[in-house]
Design a protein that fits this description.
Length: 131
Amino acid sequence: MSTHPVRLTIKLRTAVAKDYIEYFKERLKGARTVDGRLIKCSPARVKDDLAYLRTMLKHAWVDWGVPVSIKEIEKAAVSAWMKGYVGKSEARKNRVSVEDLSKIMTFWTREKTGSGCNTLSPTPMLFIVLF
C-alpha cells in the first residue's frame, strides 16, 4: 500500500466530462498522507472542488483565451450530482457549549491583556466570536 497521496492529472485543454468524473471519484476515495492516514472527502467538499474548477475554467477561457470546454465541466456536474459524487453538506449537530465559548473568549482576552497584548490586531475578535 502506498503511503503517498494519489495524484490525478487532468489536462484541462482536452478534458472531457469523464475526466472530471474520475477526478471526483478519486477525491471521494481519499488519499493517504505521508504518515499513512487516509483522508477522504465528502460530497460537499467535492462540490467545492467543482465550483473552483468551473470558476478557473471560465477565467481561463474568457480572461486568458485558453481553449477549454465549459460544456464538459457542466456535463460532468450534472452527472456527478445524479450519482451522488457531489452533494450538499450535512447540517451541524453540535453547537458551541458555554465551556467552549468561555475558552475561546479567554484566549482572545489573553491576547489583548496578557502575553499577546503587544500584538495589535485590527480584527475585533471578541465581538466577532459573540456575533
